[in-house]
TrEMBL record:
Keywords: Flavoprotein, FMN, NAD, NADP, Oxidoreductase. Belongs to the nitroreductase family. The keyword NADP applies. Gene3D superfamilies: NADH Oxidase (3.40.109.10). Its cofactor is FMN. It is an enzyme of class 1 (oxidoreductase). Residues 28-169 form the Nitroreductase domain. This is Putative NAD(P)H nitroreductase. Its EC number is 1.-.-.-. It comes from the Bacteria. The keyword Ligase does not apply. InterPro entries: NAD(P)H_nitroreductase, Nitroreductase, Nitroreductase-like, YdjA-like.
């Protein structure tokens, strides 16, 4: 017989992100973040390769990433609007966790499965923050795909890349929910 957890199911059925730009102070302290990161790391991981790590970014560290994003935008010749889009999450954010995909050499586990696992960690991190009562938002943006930014701002090695920045903070406004997928369009049933 199933052993339901109605509170967990209700959370999953109603969970939603809060836009990063609406997140304010306070933010979780180190002890609470360790609990949230522990929950995030309790994620499916084929072959137990642990192909991820976290960089917790706050205050001056976030502003420094903003400066790196501006410098890369200039080096890449991006328009001002693009530069702003890339830099603003670091210039205005209070707390963000960079989830780093750390590719592990393996004869058995394809790289794509490691990428899927890290995506799962990002969602688990988002959900752990939301379940703890914080607002949270998973952002990427062009800097997260720019090798120059990855090297200069976070000193990532060639086998590492940014899976996402999970912003966490206090919700200051409650935007309406976004439309959700129509299950009738995406579910097929096969039983014969
Ligand atoms: C890999 C990934 C990257 C994303 N990057 C951005 C981003 O850079 N900017 C943005 O506005 N939304 C981005 N989003 C979408 C936000 O996380 C958005 O708030 C989310 O889709 C809302 O979903 P939820 O309410 O179900 O949590 C990204 C989502 C994913 C999965």
């Amino acid at each position: 017989m199933p052993d339901p957890n109605p509170a967990a199911m209700e959370f999953l059925l109603t969970r939603r992100s809060r836009p990063a730009k609406t997140l304010g102070l306070p933010v979780p302290d180190r002890a609470e973040l360790m609990r949230i990161l522990t929950a995030a790391s309790r994620s499916p991981d084929h072959g137990k390769l642990e192909p991820w790590r976290f960089v917790v970014l706050q205050g001056a560290a976030l502003r420094r990433l903003g400066e790196h994003a501006r410098a890369r935008a200039t080096a890449l010749g991006l328009e001002a609007e693009q530069a702003d889009k890339g830099a603003q999450q670091f210039e205005t954010g209070q707390l963000a966790i960079a989830v780093i995909e750390v590719h592990k050499a393996s004869d058995k586990i394809p790289a794509l499965e490691q990428t899927y696992a890290v995506g799962g960690v990002c969602l688990a991190l988002l959900n752990a923050a939301l379940a703890s009562g914080w607002g949270a938002n998973w952002l990427s943006g062009w800097p997260s795909h720019d090798r120059g930014f990855m090297s200069a701002a976070l000193e990532l090695d060639a086998h590492e890349r940014i899976a996402g920045f999970i912003h966490i903070g206090t919700e200051t406004s409650a935007p309406p929910d976004r439309p959700r997928p129509d299950l009738d369009r995406i579910v097929t049933w096969q039983d014969s």
